[in-house]
Each structure stands twice: as structure tokens, then as C-alpha cells.
Amino acid sequence: MALSKEQIAQRIAKEVKDGYYVNLGIGIPTLVANFVQNDINVEFQSENGILGMGPFPFEGDEDPDLINAGKQTITALPGASFFDSAMSFGMIRGQHVDLTILGAMEVSQNGDIANWKIPGKMVKGMGGAMDLVASAENIIVAMMHTNREGESKLLKNCSLPLTGVKCVKKIVTNLAVLEIIDGKFHLLERAPGVSVEEIQKATEGDLVVKGEIIEIKF
Predict the structure, then answer these.
(1) Which of 24, 85, 188, 207 is geometrically suited to a Cys-Cys bond with 177, CB 3.0 to 4.6 A?
(2) 3-state SS of 27-55?
(3) Residue 147 lies in a domain
(4) How far is CA 144 from CA 12, 36, 111, 200, 209, in A?
């Protein structure tokens, strides 16, 4: 069975280590803060100017003055700090963020990412994604494996305008966990009940499968 958006975020949360400073992009990545282990210390950063972002608030507890980069209401953990965009992007460009988690429309087997514009459609703007991918050394992408028409979003080459080049290291989709090594997608884990053949069929780019592929565990 394909993973839900919450399960994608839950699997990515396992990549977050104690002491990390983590930037969460809009979309599925914002859910990651809900699933990080309680026994580790992590600082979540949002590019609109907060360090120490917590999970989403319960209904009725929302504070309209506390929002993330996607304009969703959030919580702030004890000790959180607030600052302007100049300071926020100083952190990002100065490589003070250990892990960046982004959504994507397309990812190529070379590690290129397209996540900011679909030609012919209105968009709010590119946001901070280009700064994030240019500065981050550890990028994980959270995305659907295929689009609504069933076409692969893991490609040999991206067809949409690029956000960054050769920057993605790992991808977690609703079907699988993959790593990009030497210009190819390497299959690491598969969603429970999803076969390797289904993943191969849904992946347009070159896919390397070695040995037994374990199911994703939570």
C-alpha cells in the first residue's frame, strides 16, 4: 500500500539526528516536526524567521501570529527565537542548517530538483528554495512518486525549470526510499505491500536494485 503524506513525513523523521538544525520546506516536509523522536534535541528552522518551531497546534490552540513559510499556523518550543528574513537566510547561506527537507515536482537521476514553477500556471513565487538547495549539503526530498496522470516524477532529466542542480541526496516517496548515487536512483526501501516491479514501472529514471529490498518500517 502506498504511503500517505503523514507516513512519508514519519519515515523522513527517522533521518533527523540529535543536535540537528533542520529546515522544513512547505507541503509534506512541514509534517516532519510531528514525528521526531521525543528523546532527541532538534531545532526546526522556517525561512520566514523562526528557530525552534514545534508541531502543528491542536484545533482551537492556533496563534495567527505564529506561522511557517507555508503560512500554516505552528507552535514554538521553549527557547524559540524570531528574526527577520535577512537573519534567516544568513543562517541558510552560511550553511548553519544540517538538513533541508523539501517537496518537489520532479527530481532527476542526477540529483537535479524542480520544485518552484509549472509553466503556464500561476505561482506565488520561488520562495527560498533556490537559496536552500544552493547552500545545503544534505537534502532529502518528500514527494509523490507519480503525478495525477500516473506519470513518473523521478526522471532521467527534469522537464520543469530547475531549482537546483546535483543537490538531492535522498528521496522518500509514497512508494519507496531512494538514494542518488553516481547519477542513478538506488532503491533502498519499499512501501509495505508495494513490489519492486511496481516501483520500477513508476520510475522513468535509471533504477538500481541490489539484493533484497526491505519494507519501510515505522
Answers:
(1) 188
(2) CHHHHHHHCCCCCCCCEEEECCCEEEECC
(3) yes
(4) 14, 21, 16, 14, 20
What is the sign, positive or negative, of the torsion defined by CA atoms of 218, 133, 26, 100?
Answer: positive
Question: Which parts of 83-191 fold into alpha helices (H)?
Answer: 85-93, 129-135
How many independent structural domains does the chain possess?
A: 1
Helices (H), the chain: 5-13, 85-93, 129-135, 196-201
- What residue type is assigned to position 28 of the chain? I
Catalytic residue positions?
Answer: 47
pLDDT band at residue 26 using 50, 70 and 90 as cut-offs: confident
The predicted model scores a pTM of 0.91
For residue 113, the enclosing domain spans 5-32+98-215
| Within a domain: 75 | no
Q: Which residues contact 58 (CB under 8 A, 6 or more apart)?
A: none
d(CA 40, CA 64): 28
Q: What is the mean pLDDT of the chain?
A: 91
For residue 105, what is the domain's CATH number?
Answer: 3.40.1080.10
